[in-house]
Each structure stands twice: as C-alpha cells, then as structure tokens.
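Protocol step 4 of 5: obtain the predicted structure for the target chain.
Materials: sequence only (see below). No template structures provided, no constraints applied. The aim of this step is simply to have a reference model before the mutagenesis design in step 5. Sequence pasted as it appears in the construct record:
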Amino acid sequence: MLLLQPTLPTYGVVANVLAAPAAPVATVVGLAACVALTVLPWLGIGLMWIAWLPSAWVAAVATFFAEAPGTRIPWWEGWLGVAALSILTVLLLAALVMKQPWRGRALGTLLVVTTVVASASAGLGLSAALSWPKDWQFAQCDVGQGDAVVVRSGDRIALIDTGPDPQLLASCLSRLGIVRIDLLVLTHFDHDHVGGAEAVIGRAETVLVGPTGSASDIELLRSFEVADAEVLPVSTGDRGELGELQWRVLWPGERLAGIDPGNDASVVVEFLPRPDCERQCLSSVFLGDLGESAQSRLLGEHRLPEVDVVKVSHHGSADQFPPLYVALNATVGLVGVGAENGYGHPTTDALSMLDDAGIMAVRSDTDGLVLVSPASEPGAVRVWSERHVSGQG
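Step 4 output (structure tokens):
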C-alpha cells in the first residue's frame, strides 16, 4: 500500500477497532438477507433493515475519520519507505514479546530509530511548508493515471475531473485545504477522469458535463443531483465566472457529427482573467482527452487565446495536433499520468511537441503534487513541485 500511496493513516487503527464489532454482523446478516430475498422477500427485507444498523455504524466511523484533520501522515516513497516501516514494526514487536535484556535493547533501538524517522519526516514536512506558494492558482493532484486539477481564484474553487481513485483525490484535496467545490467539470466519463467522483459527491455545487454514453454515466450524475448539486450539460459557448476568472466552454459543439461520447467529446474549458482582475490572474485551457482530429477541429472553429497553463490532452499520448499547442503558447503543460503506466504516457513525441512549442511539461508521475502561481515578473509563472526544486517560466 505504501508503494501506491506514500502516507500512513493517522486514525486507521482506532477506526478499525471501532468498526470491527459491527463488520461481521453486517456481513452475515446482509448475506442472509440476500439469500432470503430469493425465497421469502418479506424476511429478506427485514434482515436488510437489521443489517443496515451495523453497516451505517461502519460508514459513520469511516466518514468521521476520513474528514478529521490530518487523516494521513506523509511517509517516504518507494521501497525506502517500505523498509523503514518494516524495521519499525519488527522493533515494536520485539519490544513487546521478547524478554529482558533483549526487550530493553529492542525498545531503546526502537526509540532511536523512531526519533530519526520522525525528525527526517518533520524536516521534509517543514521544508515543504516553507516552500509551498500560498498564492497558488492551479494544483495538479497526483492521482495516478488520470486527471484531477484544481483551479483557485480567491476563495472560489473549480475541479477539472476527479482521477480514478476517490482516496487519492480526497487526500489531495485535504492537503490543499479544500472542503467545498464551487465548479466541478467532468470532461468525459472514462474511469481515469470520473472514478474518484465519490470523494466529491456532496461537496460540489455545480457540475458541468458533456454527452453521456451509458447508464452508469447517468447514475453518477443522479448521485450528484441527489446530493443537491446542479448538473448542467454544456456545449460550446456556455460561460460563467469563478472569482476573478471567467470560464467558457470551447468544446463539444451542439453538432458532434461523427463523434461518439468519450475522448473526442471531452468538455474543453478555458479560464481567462476578468477585466476587473486586481491581481495577476493566470489563464488556462483544459483539453480533456481530445485526439488529433478533434484538436484540429477545435483550432479551426475558434480563435484561441494564448494562455499560461494548458492541461495536455490524453495524458500526453501521441494522438496530438501540434499547431494547437503552438497557438496556445502556454508556459506550463500539465500532464496527469501514473508512474510506469502501461500506455507509455507521456510519449516521446508528445514531450518533443511540448518542447518545440516552448511549453514546460509538468508530470504528476515524476513531480507529484504541483502548484502553479504567478511569478514576480509580469507574464511569468512559478511552478512548485513536492519532488523537485521549484522553477519559473
């Protein structure tokens, strides 16, 4: 689990202890309900109500601790983190089960190792806290092979896609201190873009969506509506405001001849500064997963503005239209991609295309959480990464 997410659950043991007594009751009675429903429906429904109580308790415990402050502790990544935690676990077990004098020696070693690890972790956390730009306007979450980018303008928040994993998205939003989402854009309904939606159901006020393609897509949108979100199907020309930014939908159009719901029907949205923007408001375009032909049509149908940030289409696949990126003339290209993914993203061709267009590629697989903020020089931006030294462009 550490290899997938280098953090430790702060309340994991306590939460499991509280939930454990109810779990077997919910499981056994729930299974009995499933069997009874096929024979005696009235009995099955009664058993379902009985199973609801322990199930509700487990859900309440999980929700409470998931929303508690500091739910996860940052830990070292990779096999170094696994080795460090394994050593601490072995020393703890030795201190508990061994006899003197070995118990005392194990306990002393455990205290020393724990102090060293805690000091190193605290140092890393303090370093990140000191370098974290407080005026960030874009945050690319590290959610694996998928997209989840936050746009912030003042106290207003937009989230473009949710990535594939609710837990990873919830962890990122918690780190950013985000509780409420004013505008959620689901570019399309592939799992790597909406799989993490569970983490924001009940937290989003307005949800912008493109064409649906299956019953599961409609069911997801119904979940948002039940949680009091306003779900708005959009098309080219729809617009609104987010703080000191104004957003506009560039794609898909009302006429989608030859385009099925999916990648090429992705919602493409731009965020531009309002005329009365009092600070240095950065501009952006999010391209979803548009392929080369759709990108070509997009460029042909719109006079696109030059922007500061572009969300690179389809995780940096080779299916790109280079003139579009030249026209956008962005400083930073955000690439939501998972480490060692099986698709080969981002491809060498895509990275070369960005380099030729003068766009700095920022990848979630190698850079982790990325924050983009205005630089001191007009027209420049600052990029902060949790895994690399900050840069400016």
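Step 4 remarks: Residues 7-72 form one domain. The chain has three domains: 7-72, 79-131, 138-392.
Proceed to step 5.
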